[in-house]
Each structure stands twice: as C-alpha cells, then as structure tokens.
Write a structure and sequence with these properties.
Blueprint (H helix, E strand, L loop, with lengths): L1 E6 L10 H15 L14 E5 L6 H8 L7 E8 L3 H11 L8 E8 L8 H16 L2 E2 L6 E8 L2 E5 L3 E2 L11 E5 L5 H11 L3 E8 L7 H13 L6 E7 L1 H10 L5 H20 L3 E3 L12 H8 L6 E2 L7 H11 L2 H4 L21 H8 L4 H10 L2 E5 L10
Parallel strand pairs: 4-5, 4-6, 9-10, 9-12, 10-11, 12-13
Antiparallel strand pairs: 1-2, 1-3, 3-7, 3-8, 6-7, 11-14
Helix pairs in contact: 3-4, 5-10, 8-9, 8-13
The chain binds adenosine-5'-triphosphate (ATP) and magnesium ion.
C-alpha cells in the first residue's frame, strides 16, 4: 500500500509534552488533508503515516504535507508486512530500473528491535538483490541513490528518497500572535517565522484608504492568502489609519511623524491583541533597514506598548529576508506597487534618533487613548479558510 511516511525531529525532544505536541501534529495533518482521498493519519513509533488510496494524485497529497509545521521530512513510501521476503519483494518490484544510477546503498532503520534480522544483514541482503538485478554499484559513503527501509512493530516501509518538510513545531502549540502586516517584504516573512514555531498568527493591516488607494489592502489580503495554508486558515483585521494620521499632522512636526505613527500602530495592535487573546505582537523590523528601524527609534517605538513585541527578523540581512520571501511565494505580492499609509503626510527625511521625551511632548496634545480605543473598537475582520473543501453536490 502506498503511504506518505513523515518524520518529526524537534518534537522528539519535548519530554513530557511530547504526546501533546504529537496530538497537534496529527490533528493538523488530518485537517491539512481534508477533501483528499487518503486514509486516517497514524503514528507508528516516532513516525507519521498517511495511506494514499489508488487513484488519488500523490503530488496533491505531498503539496499539502509540505505545509504542515512540525514535519521534518516526508517520503512517498510503500507499506508491507514486516518480513524479509515482503520487504525485498516490494523493493525489487518498485525499483526505478529505468533510471541511470551510478551508485547506491540500502539503509535500514529498525525501530522494532525484535525484528529477527539485524539492520546490516538486511542491508546486505537487499543490496545484493538490487545489485544483481540492475548492475548498479554499491557506494556506502556517497551514494547517488538510496533504498530506505524502516521497520516498526507491525509494518515495514520502503522508499527511495525523502523530501524536506516545513520543519518547526505544530501550529497551535505556541499560542496566538498578532502580526502587524504591511504590504512590504519583511512582515510576511516575520509572520511565517513565528508560525513555524507553532504560533497561530492573526493579522492586522493599517491602511490609508480613502486617503490612499485600495492597493495595500489588496496586497495584505493576498499575503494572508499565501500564508494561511500553513496554519489552516487565518483572520485579517483591517484598520483605517488615514484619519488618525491626519490628526497627527495637526500637532506633530514632520520629522517625528513616522515614530508617532508606529507608536499608534503598536498601541492599537495591543488593544486588538487583548481582544483576540494574542500573547505577543510581531513586526518585520530589522535593525538599520529603514529610518524607523535605528536602535533609538525601535526603542522609542517599542516603549509605546508593554505587550511582548517580537521582531523575528531583527538581525537578518535584507538578502536573507528576500530569499525567504521568494521561497514562501510572498515576494511577488510584496513588490507590487501600493501606497503605504506611512508615506502619507510624511516628509522624505524622518528622524533617525528619536528621544522619548521629545516624542512624548509631541504626543501630549493628541487624544491618544480615544484614538486608540476608537480604532480598535470595531475592526473589519476578514477570514481565509483553508483547505477549501468542495462538498459533493446533492
Ligand atoms: P515591511 O517590509 O514589513 O513593510 P519595512 O522594512 O518596510 O517592513 P517599516 O515600513 O518601517 O519597515 O515597517 C516596520 C514594521 O512595522 C513592518 O514590518 C510591520 O510589521 C509594521 N508595519 C508597518 N506598516 C504597517 C501597516 N501599514 N500595517 C501593519 N503593520 C505595519
Ligand atoms: Mg514597510
């Protein structure tokens, strides 16, 4: 029988919480595969197995498996009876003989220690049969092709190669975070990094509409659509920010505005986080990348909230962040033109070394508490569901 056989690594280290992590992993995998013709997820000895029914496109199953955080790698494998004959016959039957294979080896993992044949003996036995049938040369240290065999108490699996999984920890094991999502390159990557650590992300986007076009909202929606599959759906909160910015311009000198806008965003995000029970705020800041991200400014901006604020990209280079964005598929959306609300009513040269006292003085004439309360009162919340399961008609 054809199965997906996946391994988890980091969870294996989680001590007493291990069963709880694994329950999340199994449930998330089941949910991710909704609507596909697969059997139930099973957890044989440190592995995760999904039977794939004949006729089901295995590529579609793999595409979903690749989104599941907590899986270190996976393989399209075959399950057989745990006997030497069944394993050897299976391997010989499915071997891709048409392939040009300069060298190979057999690797046996025996999680079932009572299996009567030692791993090296089984490797030699299968290796001899494969070599005789194909003429391929054995190379134990640097093989071009590997036949993998894994034996658990009631089953054996064989496959011809693992693919990397999404890694990280199962969604839901890390608690909820509120991600401040601009239309830019960085914040979607920051979100993904926290999601991969098991956090469930809710997103908030501040937009300048109707002072600016709709473009940044459309981008935020698209970005959430790309990220949502990794955590099986997401919510996006849309907060109009243009009117608040206009109010800021009345009393705050131009060079200080970006810092004041950012502090307002964090305060509103804090209020929203409390509503949705998010334990932390997440931003895409990286030290020195733009004027608002000097250490001085980050410090003054961060002091607007006492809520835990996480900046997963803080020490990363732009190139590294862009590579992540390409891999995630967010890059082409992030670089679409938009009118970021922070460019609204902002001079070209904002302050790079904000002083808290100066900023507080500038904010003193603003009804900050009311502005925050009003903005957070009734956020427009949009929901992205994943997977979209088409129910049979009738
Ligand atoms: P990004 O590429 O994520 O836009 P950036 O390098 O352009 O980041 P800034 O524009 O200074 O940096 O924004 C810093 C962080 O503040 C962003 O990563 C994001 O978390 C948050 N942020 C900025 N603008 C918005 C917005 N309009 N809505 C929500 N969050 C925002
Ligand atoms: Mg930006």
């Amino acid at each position: 029988m054809r199965v997906i056989l996946a391994h988890y690594q980091e969870i294996a280290l989680k001590g007493q919480n291990r069963p709880w992590f694994i329950r999340h992993l199994a449930r998330n995998t089941r949910d991710a595969l909704a609507g596909l013709d697969v059997g139930d997820v099973r957890l044989p000895m440190g592995r995760l197995e999904v039977p794939v029914r004949d006729g089901q496109d295995v590529g579609a199953v793999c595409a979903r498996i690749r989104t599941v955080f907590g899986l270190a790698n996976y393989a399209v494998a075959h399950r057989v009876e745990p006997t030497v004959e069944a394993i050897t016959d299976g391997v010989m039957g499915d071997l891709p003989r048409e392939r040009v294979v300069p060298s190979f080896r057999v690797e046996v993992r025996r999680a079932h220690k009572q299996f009567p044949v030692a791993s090296p003996d089984l490797e030699r036995h299968i290796g001899a049969r494969v070599g005789a049938a194909t003429g391929w040369k054995v190379d134990l240290s640097n093989p071009a092709f590997t036949v993998w065999v894994e034996i658990v108490p009631k089953a054996a699996y064989y496959h011809f190669g693992k693919e990397p999984g999404a890694g990280g920890l199962p969604t839901g094991t890390g608690g909820r975070v509120l991600v401040l999502l601009s239309g830019g390159i960085d914040s979607p990557v920051a979100a993904w990094r926290m999601m991969r650590r098991g956090c469930h992300a809710t997103f908030v986007h501040f937009h300048g509409h109707p002072f600016t076009s709709h473009a940044s909202i459309d981008k935020a929606r698209e970005l959430v659509r790309v990220l949502a599959p990794c955590q099986l759906g997401a919510h996006l909160m849309l907060i109009p920010f243009g009117e608040l910015q206009r109010q800021v311009t009345v009393t705050v000198p131009g060079p200080l505005r970006v810092v004041v806008y950012r502090r307002l965003m964090l305060r509103i995000a804090e209020a929203l986080a409390t509503k949705v029970h998010a334990r932390a705020l997440v931003t895409g800041d990286a030290v020195g990348q733009v004027a608002s991200q000097t250490l001085d400014n980050l410090s003054v901006i961060g002091s607007a909230t006492s809520h835990l604020t996480i900046r997963p990209l803080v020490g990363m280079d732009k190139g590294e962040i862009m590579a992540d964005a390409h891999r995630l598929g967010t890059f082409p959306i992030s670089v679409l033109p938009d009118e970021d609300c922070c460019t609204l009513f902002t001079p070209r040269h904002p302050l790079t070394r904000a002083k808290l006292a100066e900023i507080e003085r500038a904010e003193a004439d603003l009804p900050i508490a009311q502005m925050v309360a009003a903005a957070a009162a009734e956020p427009v919340i949009e929901r992205v569901d994943w997977p979209v399961v088409k129910l049979p008609v009738g």
